[in-house]
Sequence to fold (294 residues):
Amino acid sequence: MDLVTLDIFRTVAQEGSVTRAAERLGRAQSNVTTRVQQLEEQLGAALFLREGRGMQLTPAGETLLAYAERLLALAEEARQALHPGEPTGRLRIGAMESTAAARLPGPLAALHARWPRLTLELRTAPSRQLVEQVLAHQLDCALVAWPPPGVDDDTPVQRSPVCTESLLLALPASHPPVARPTDLRLHLLAAFAQGCSYRRIGEDWMRQAGSPVEVLELASYPAILACVAAGRCAGVVPQSVLDLLRHPPALRWVPLGRCETMLVHRPGYATPALAALRQALHGIGDPSSEPTRS
Fold:
């Protein structure tokens, strides 16, 4: 059960296919199949259910995958520790969709230019899922809106502030002026999946009107803004995302307050790559910026 075999196993689990895993790893398909079979023989357990061309993890495979993530992450951390003055290897970064679009392009480009031997991997998801992936060793660090739903100060992650976002409630242009939740005439919120901090903030604000809030789950800010423009619903949008738009939609904007973005990682995780990322992220937010007014 060496690290190379564990990496092959993890890749097959992620891709759900030997063919796709072989392409991603640059290996022959027969080699990937053989390594997985040898691992199963060594462990005396079936790790995958073979369904046609697909590969689905068995309960034993799920158990091994959790250990594989931890072992491979620790091995990468150890390799980086041998070169304290030069960030190398791989850094797996998680971020909210809004942060990836509005805050990260500049810092990540600068980081790559300064440290070309450092491989950066970026994954987006709602804040709660990002924290869970950090704890499961699937990510090395993540930028999340704190606190995510279902996560509190006792959660075993270290965190440091990165920037503060001004949040806006987007409403159809035809909606009457809104000074308080009771002025709201809509009860449908277009938002990301459960686990999104901004969704929770929007739901909590709208519930103050005394009516149940329904949620239309969407996967992008353009989709959220399109549904708001169509007159169906409200949506929560950070000012930084609105600033990216060359021609912002003619909507009504209601300030919802501010939410802090935190960089989180596992306790004790301290690599040159993480230090370089911290330096690149320094000063990316402007806490003094004022939100657009209704």
Remarks:
- Residues 287-294 have pLDDT under 50 and may be disordered.
